[in-house]
Amino acid sequence: MKKTRNIASLIICAMLVTILAACGNGDKNNEASSSAPASAVSSPESSPESSPESSPEVAPVDLGGRTIQIAQNWDGTPTDDTAAGKARLDKIAELEKLYNVKIKYISLPSEEINEKFVTTTLAGEPFADIIRIEYTKALPAALNGQLTPMSEFASPTSDINNANKLLVKAPPIAGVEYGFDGVGNNAVMMHYNRDLFKKLGLPDPHELYNNGEWTWDKFLEIAKAATKDTDNDGKIDVWGFSGWAAKAARDFAASNGAKIADDATGTEGLTNPATIEALEFVNKLYNVDNVVKIKTGKKSNWEEQDTFKDGDVAMFITADWQMWELPFDFGLVPIPMGPKGSKDYTYALEGHGLFIPKGVKNPDVVFHIYEEMQNIPAYEEYPSQNYLEERYKHEEDIQMLREHIVGTGLLTLDAAYPDYPWYTAVQEIIDNNASVTATVEKYKQQAQASMDSINKK
């Protein structure tokens, strides 16, 4: 306790020094370090305009030459081949000297990271101080007490609890904040084939969204208008939609405000009226209005997620990282809003984040060092600028993504529960045109038992 009070006093002094020295500092965002694949991390060559607003300093603690290890499924070690990389290396060298530490990135396949995380944390000796794992793996870890809650390492003055210029919080897991990640502009959204929209004279989704008309009904109306035989050979050759049915249903459920499995309350979400509504809508796309292109011969096949690449599909749900080297012009909007939805949530968030395992020594200092590692000059106008401009050729799409989609993911963790019957239920509904209400009722008890098997350990 005495040590904590001393550090607090030093923090106050350091803050006063920081305020006096900060005159004239800019307010730009730092280079992105997002949760997208490594290729999404920016590496611009332009000169910095200013530094992000620094988080309040923490009095340096001598960690005795300790190595702080950061584990993820790609090598995060900065290189000196870009201005941003050089700045990050300089920052790491500065922090290593200040705290008497070594900072090391560990690159391992995701499954190996998950396995080592569990075994070493259970043994009380986590193999890394900061670890990137999927949210579905973080849930059982959190429930088993293997993750350090953010309240134990992020101070009230941390950037993550204030400006979020350096790091952002991951969504709460089981009602508690644990994770964090870099500032970025990555998401899942409804993409559309601009060439087909122009050829078929379909309405502009951007205008529909801006006018408050981008709803499930309008989406279905356009999908039906786009599904047609354009060469009069008696066969449909252009389709309104394509995708992996289970993923599409999950995203439409999120855009209707529904969690398929509610990790905060521990209750199954199959029978949530908003989930049922989403399943009914997706079933209508596939089996009533028949606006979905099926390339593999099986409606629920996961490989259908790539069918849109053929260029004969008007609309499709994908993440930004999937939009690469396509033979047609495309645009994006949020997934249309469901009857029970809002603009707060537009897609189902899965993905991964950074966590501090339970048992890591000095987690508050470790986190502060990592947060300060992000405090380098801004080499882009906004996070992920270069990455996004490589993929999207229309400024209005990037603006739509940044202003209306980023940050609207609804954390969806049904895959974290063993044998949760989401895929089975969707398969029966889509492949067999089974009754939605009968199917969710059929699997309701299995879904709840699956959640209870983790929640009640």
TrEMBL record:
The keyword Signal applies. InterPro entries: Bact_solute-bd_prot1, SBP. It comes from Cohnella yongneupensis. The lineage of its organism: Bacteria, Bacillati, Bacillota, Bacilli, Bacillales. Residues 30-61 are annotated as: Disordered. Pfam families: SBP_bac_1 (PF01547). The keyword Signal applies. SUPFAM superfamilies: Periplasmic binding protein-like II. This is ABC transporter substrate-binding protein. Residues 1-21 form the signal peptide. Residues 31-61 have a biased composition (Low complexity). It comes from the Bacteria. Keywords: Signal.
